[in-house]
Design brief:
63 residues, mainly alpha, 0% strand
Length: 63
């Protein structure tokens, strides 16, 4: 494959991936997950907890 052909193939793949990304950004479920993740990270930061500490707390409450 020539450099130009390889470049064009990479360009097409990138365009497809960008279209998929834009489509995903419009999904309500993804928007909710991103919002939850952002809020959870802010909450953990405000209390000074790491993700590992939060998981340990959650695992302890399961028992």
């Amino acid at each position: 494959m020539t450099n130009l052909a390889e470049f064009r193939a990479a360009e097409r793949k990138l365009a497809q991936q960008l279209a998929k990304l834009e489509s995903m950004k419009q999904e309500t479920g993804l928007q909710q997950e991103v919002a939850f993740s952002n809020e959870l990270r802010a909450l953990m930061e405000s209390y000074g907890y790491s993700p590992a500490q939060v998981l340990a707390i959650l695992r302890a409450t399961e028992q």
